Amino acid sequence: xxxxxxxSSSRNSARYKNILKPSxxxxxxxxxxxxxxxxxxxxxxICTSRYNDEPxxxxxxxEEESLKQQTRSDRLWEAPHSYGFHPCIKPTPRYxxxxxxxxxxxxxxxxxxxxxxTGIADMVAVARIMNATMVIPQLDRKSFWQDSSTFSDxxxxxxxxxxxxxxxxxxxxxxxxxxxxPRARKHFTSWGSMGYYEEMTGLWKDYQVLHVAKSDSRLxxxxxxxxxxxxxxxxxxxxxxxxxxxxxxxxxxxxxLRSNGGKYIALHLRYEKDMLAFTGCTDGLTExxxxxxxxxxxxxxxxxxxxxxSTEQRIGGLCPLTPKEVGIFLQALGYPPSTMIYIAxxxxxxGDAYLSEFRSRFPNLVFKETVATSKELEAFADxxxxxxxxxxxxxxxxxxxxxxxxxxxxxxxxxxxxxxGHRKTVSPDRKGLVEVFEKMETGELExxxxxxxxxxxxxxxRQGGPRKRRGSMPGIKGxxxxxxxxxxxxxxxxxxxxxxxxxxxPA
Length: 507
Prior knowledge:
Structural class: alpha/beta
Radius of gyration: 37 Å
Number of strands: 11
Strand content: 5-15%
Largest sheet: 5 strands, parallel
Order of helices and strands: HEEHEHHEEHEHHEHHHHEHEHHHEHHHHE
């Protein structure tokens, strides 16, 4: 029984084995199917995930690039770090109010607007040093611009007198009893020192009225008492406010530019006939144009240098940038074609013929004639100094100021912008740029990343940030060294701009 059962079990076991064989095979197949399905699912999930991640992966660099572009844009417009420097023009405790002086200085201011402005500020300080009453200056009517404007046409006369009443007594005209008395007519030396003007007080022994025939550059840039230097700043930046008609129109023009473009560059494009003739710069001009400029220079008596080598001038960085060069320069710095550029200048020599390439890079070029209406400018017609005052204000209020040449206006604007918080002023390295432009002409350097890198690197420290005023050039002796000093009005630091000494960059 037992054997029988055992045999039966063996047969059953064999049968079970036979039954189990197809079952195991089926299970194996199912396993493979499940495994295959799992692999396909995982593969699909990975692919799907990759597909779903694709937008975020591509979007992230766009965000980063947008942020970089925004940062670059901000850097183009932001002012240099001021390190806490601020205007400081209050008198020291040693400074005393003026006395009732019965000696008078009359002044004839010479030159264009900004030459007259800085000259008047100098003469305010000279009147203080010499203990004299100052008569409202007469303005130059014989300069290149032939402007008949009086002091009150350009400046707020009442404001000028009131602001300086604690410094110098100022009157509108000589007392009648002194109109016919003999006057000492004096051409003060250029860049006179404190000691020089103290010696000049000896003139009061014989005269009650002193007439000064020229006002520009009558005071030294350096080594003057702190109170005299600060008085010059009070006179220039506070007292010499433009007339209400000029101030009001300039305010309207600034608002119009802001409403159209937000930010704007003020470009003092000194590519004007008188400047090209004075400097002898004729690169890129026709023979006819070069001859015209030479004749103008030869016929202008107070321009002492008549024969000028244009090539040497250009290589030495002594020429204004051309409109084409300014366009290349601004584009290489990173300013986009949409940038609003206000051109502060008189008539550009050659007109559209030389502006066209600049305009092809920056179409949004505007002048006061295109921002203001003809009716608004009607009162300023034939008054170059008044229209120059409009340009001056537009430059002071701009987000960025770029001068193509360091003339009187460029220096005055730069100094004013430094005084007003070191607003961004990009001063082109003209000598270095000439080398760059020559490399472009020979094909050694092309526009693009390489050019931008070179030009940006050249101008990293030419943004108008705080630094001490530069002294005279080494190796130059005697009075000639004064001519090479940086103008006090170009950079009134440290006398009129105060801050922590460790943050002042060396000259």
